[in-house]
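Hey, quick one: can you model this chain's 3D structure?
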Amino acid sequence: MGWLDGKRVLSIGGASGIGRAAVGAFADEGARLAVMDISGDALEILGKELGDAVVAVQGDTTVLADSERAVAEAVRAFGGIDVLLYFPGVFDFGAGIADIPGEALGAAYDELFSVNVKGVLFAVKAALPELLASEGSIVLTVSTSGFHPGSGGILYTPSKYAVRGLVTQLAYELAPKVRVNGVAPGGTVTGIRGLSALGQEGVSIRTMLPSEEAAKQMIVAGTPLDWDPVPETHASAYVYLAASDRASAVTGQIISSDGGVGVRGVLKLAGMKNPAGGV
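Sure thing. Here's the predicted structure for all 279 residues.
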């Protein structure tokens, strides 16, 4: 018996990164998933890897009609939706207000907030009738940047504070019918893209450092726990929040899966770990 046996899931995003790890974990726990992603190539790979466990829908999360079409495909395949997941995001790679040219600021804002915030609203709006009918749940992707400054820039950080606010407000508005929660991953080695408006299209966490291992070491060195900052580390948090028999009393909450960023010390990183990452 899986934690999510029989659950009908619509995942907005999910063909790469943290979303892909979560989609795999949901399938392993018995869920059936419709996955909407902007990348047709990534969806093709996902279909080959997970087979009949997923229904692939190519679409753009910033277009309401695409989210509505994804909902329709999920309902056609499964008869309804029990869980809505949201993963898409773009990053500003720490660009501060002084770093962004004035002529690029508006376009960069629109690009980032359209994916990170507006897309959430479109997904929820499109899926809400089905979620109300099933008395289901929503799990959004927040970030360490939704709680702490410095890991994102002047655009990414407030966008994740906004998603954190959406968790709270939606949980209030939709109770007692629909539970709404979030997961806040810490720095993770993924291929999350930068902003076209800032010329960051080819930049990713993987490309900023000499190797994936170097990226991992950089992330772990700044957190109290010695953990593995890969997408799979966060997947179980999504599974738990979506499991209605295990998290039936949980709404409006965000699980921080970030290596302990919230308990970093002032004079020393952690009680048994020095700032360089050694014990």
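One thing worth noting: The two ends are 40 Å apart (CA to CA).
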